[in-house]
Specification:
Layout: E1 29-44, E2 49-65, E3 69-73, H1 80-87, E4 95-100, E5 103-104, H2 110-113, E6 120-123, H3 137-148, H4 156-166, H5 183-194, E7 201-205, H6 213-230, E8 233-237, H7 241-247, E9 250-255, E10 258-264, H8 265-270, H9 275-282, H10 289-294, H11 328-332, E11 338-339, E12 345-346
Helix pairs in contact: 3-4, 3-5, 4-5
């Protein structure tokens, strides 16, 4: 499928302007996020007076390299889905910067983002609500071509049927409606729509959470095959650590709107550095009854208390209210996300398996 050639531009783009980007090389930074924030105002009364804000995303710094898969995990409500919508510019950031191939797209308007929609696409979580029930599959998958004014070689219908075959559906499904398909088939339709214009970056928001376990494996394997075939770059958001381990090259762990740990897949699962990451991994079930009987596997860690409200997060480290290693410095000083000698980026004053970032404050809050 042919695609309009885009030229490189490193100049700052005014709001509402048009961005142009160049072809990325394997391993180069495709997406760079700095200080990204999204605060949703909370209003009250007849005059809608703002009385607070939900700090859904409160300062994210990370990058995504061309050809890799970045997995994002965390509890429900930690800001994962909001982050995905921010980097695809479906939401307007409160603060921070988003660069796509060196071009600042943080405040581009609708017209400015239109050419970039070819390169940045999203697969939504719910395959039942993300497809228009009044449109046929052919109309849904062909919509990106019509919106971008792209005329595929061989005709639009043939191209859509080819896309349906690529994601494991039949070309005969072209004239059917979404209600005639199962959940897994609907998600495949959403994947076909996202891949229609050969994007460079695909953000998948919980792509398998609404599917049966057997169908999850099929969709995950499909995403892997498409990445290898088309050279895609993924940001996959999920709460299932087993799925993330299968598909990701690097993994970011989020808690209350912030990234608390970021490293490669093997290091994260073998030597988690942040106490919250360790607690998450301890909750992953081990599908081996012999290990359970012999007492093998990870030590189960039960976190005390509830997740704090994102409207009023704790001072200092946001995890200190539930952390068994918390000291006074955790209560008063927010830990920065720094790279340790192990290669992990960790936001913790007392990281696991490493010398403390803040030595000398060893009195635990639970002891006090």
């Amino acid at each position: 499928m042919s695609e309009a050639e885009m030229t490189d531009s490193n100049s700052d783009q005014p709001k509402g302007g048009t961005a142009t980007v160049a072809e990325p090389r394997e391993g180069e930074t495709l997406l760079k996020v700095s200080g990204l924030k999204k605060h949703f105002p909370v209003t009250k009364g007849l005059f809608k007076r703002q009385v607070g804000a939900v700090l859904a995303v409160d300062g994210l710094d990370f990058d995504v390299r061309s050809g890799e898969t970045l997995g994002v995990v965390g509890e429900s409500g930690c800001g994962k889905s909001t982050m995905g919508r921010l980097i695809t510019r479906l939401l307007e950031p409160t603060a921070g910067n988003i660069e796509f191939e060196g071009t600042d797209i943080t405040h581009l308007g609708v017209n400015g983002m239109r050419p970039l929609r070819r390169d940045v696409q999203m697969i939504f979580q719910d395959p039942y609500s993300s497809l228009n029930p009044r449109h046929t599959v052919g109309s849904i998958v062909s919509a990106p071509f019509k919106l971008q004014g792209v005329k595929p070689e061989g005709g639009l219908k043939d191209e859509v049927q080819r896309l349906l075959q690529r994601v494991g559906l039949s070309p005969e499904h072209y004239n059917r409606y979404p209600h005639e398909f199962s959940g897994g088939q609907r998600q495949r339709i959403g994947i076909a729509r996202a891949l229609a214009l050969n994007p460079k970056l695909v953000v998948a928001d919980e792509p398998v959470s609404a599917l049966d376990v057997s169908i999850q494996a099929q969709v995950v394997n499909l995403l892997d095959d498409l990445q290898e075939e088309l050279g895609l770059t993924y940001v996959i958001i999920a709460h299932d650590l087993s799925v993330i381990r299968h598909v990701s090259d690097r993994i970011a762990v989020m808690y209350l709107g912030k990234i608390v740990e970021l490293t490669d897949r093997q290091s994260l699962y073998d030597r988690p550095m942040h106490p919250y990451t360790r607690a998450l991994l301890s909750a992953v079930p081990v599908p081996d009854p012999r290990r359970k009987q012999s007492g093998g596997g990870r030590e189960r860690i039960l976190l005390q208390g509830d997740v704090p409200s994102p409207m009023n997060p704790p001072s200092g480290c946001r995890f200190h209210t539930r952390c068994w290693k918390a000291t006074e410095v955790c209560k008063t000083k927010e830990p920065p996300l720094v790279a340790l000698e192990t290669g992990h980026q960790v936001a913790c004053h007392h990281p696991e398996n490493a010398p403390d970032q803040e030595p000398g404050d060893t009195k635990l809050l639970v002891e006090k």
